[in-house]
Amino acid sequence: MAIPSSKEVFIQGITSAGKTFRPSDWAERLAGVMSSFRPGGVQPGSHLSYSPWCIPKVINGIKCVVVNEKLRDYEPMAWDFVMHFARDNELQVAEACLLPDMPVEKKR
User: What is the pTM of this model?
Assistant: First the structure.
């Protein structure tokens, strides 16, 4: 299996004090604000989907926003916005790489 070359930053919905961040839809709101920052720029209807560089996910029961480092190259101010959001709200941030789901084998 090839090692993924892209890196992501995981903004987790847990504060530095260990509390769940509120409001409960914070991840979707943040990713929605970032929807126009995408490969190829803004397209008609792009506001209707999340950018592939900023995706809300639930990982191990914790709401997160996965921010791809390509966003930093494309628009440094957008990158700064999400990083400052995490810092200002004292959210936990981890650098990692999201691996694709393994295909499920069918039982015979």
Answer: 0.78
